[in-house]
């Protein structure tokens, strides 16, 4: 299917850092963020990951759709903030504001992933009065499923409004599903890439950090498998199939939890 192509002027450009590929140029226009692929198929990864979340009991996530932006494939997502009433503060920014130091460097003064996770849980409770255990449990287990190699402390965050703090929606899965062709060249075995994928931020093993907290994600496998059949035969689809097969026992079958996918329009 031919992707809709948006022509967006330079006046809408925004430079966003803190990713595995350094500073990214995105566009913000009419309440939507637009992002072009730069290393592979990040836009497809974003869409597939948000689609997978639509078949789970997780409700608070950002839906993505694939588009072309100025002739280059990519994706767009609706701003999950109300710009006039809400602000986003990453975990990294919160720690730097509170202590003037780098959170990643600080947690690695702890020897074990469990202790690093506990440090972050304690800090967020101190900073915002919220227990982030469930939030981290969701992110760590989902990242293990989709192999998101770029879940650092800049895309884990808090939203502040007059009512106080809440956790941000799940967003920024573009580095999942082996989407970066520079890191995971297409002429090498997918299974080897899966084994070589390194997680963030608590240790380099997706499984090791996810197993500290376990999972709170349940999956409607009937709908998920039917959806996978609709994905074109690409590496993203193959990686997802392998990961679902590998971790199906880790994620229980969703039962009696109605969930309607959010509409990005």
Can you describe what's shown?
With 265 residues, the protein is an alpha+beta fold. 35% of the residues lie in helices and 16% in strands. It is built from nine helices and nine strands. It has a six-stranded mixed β-sheet with strand order 1-5-6-4-3-2, with helices on one face. A three-stranded antiparallel β-sheet has the order 7-8-9. Strand 8 and strand 9 (164-167) form a beta hairpin. Helix 5 packs antiparallel against helix 7. The longest helix is centred in the middle third of the chain and has 16 residues, at 113-128. The protein is globular. The protein starts with a strand and ends in an 18-residue tail after the last helix. Mean pLDDT is 93; it is low at 260-265.
């Amino acid at each position: 299917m031919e992707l809709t192509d948006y022509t967006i002027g330079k006046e809408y450009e925004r430079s966003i850092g803190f990713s595995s590929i350094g500073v990214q140029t995105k566009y913000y226009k009419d309440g939507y963020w637009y992002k072009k692929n730069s290393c592979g198929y990040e836009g497809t990864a974003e869409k597939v990951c948000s689609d997978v979340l639509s078949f789970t009991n997780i409700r608070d996530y950002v839906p993505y759709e694939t588009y072309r932006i100025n002739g280059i494939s990519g994706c767009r997502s609706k701003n999950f903030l109300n710009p006039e009433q809400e602000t986003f503060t990453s975990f990294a920014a919160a720690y730097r504001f509170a202590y003037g130091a780098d959170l990643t460097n600080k947690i690695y003064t702890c020897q074990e992933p469990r202790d690093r996770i506990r440090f972050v849980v304690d800090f967020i409770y101190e900073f915002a009065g919220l227990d982030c255990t469930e939030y981290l449990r969701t992110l760590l287990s989902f990242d293990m499923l989709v192999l998101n190699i770029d879940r650092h402390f800049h895309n884990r965050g808090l939203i502040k409004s007059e009512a106080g703090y809440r956790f941000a929606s799940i967003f920024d899965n573009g580095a999942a599903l082996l989407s970066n062709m520079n890191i995971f060249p297409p002429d090498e075995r997918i299974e080897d890439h899966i084994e070589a994928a390194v997680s963030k931020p608590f240790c380099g093993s997706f499984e090791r950090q996810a197993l500290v907290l376990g999972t709170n994600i349940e999956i409607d496998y009937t709908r998920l498998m039917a959806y996978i059949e609709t994905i074109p035969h690409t590496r993203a689809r193959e990686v997802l199939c392998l990961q679902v097969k590998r971790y199906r026992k880790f994620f229980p079958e969703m039962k009696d939890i109605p969930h309607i996918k959010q509409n990005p329009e």
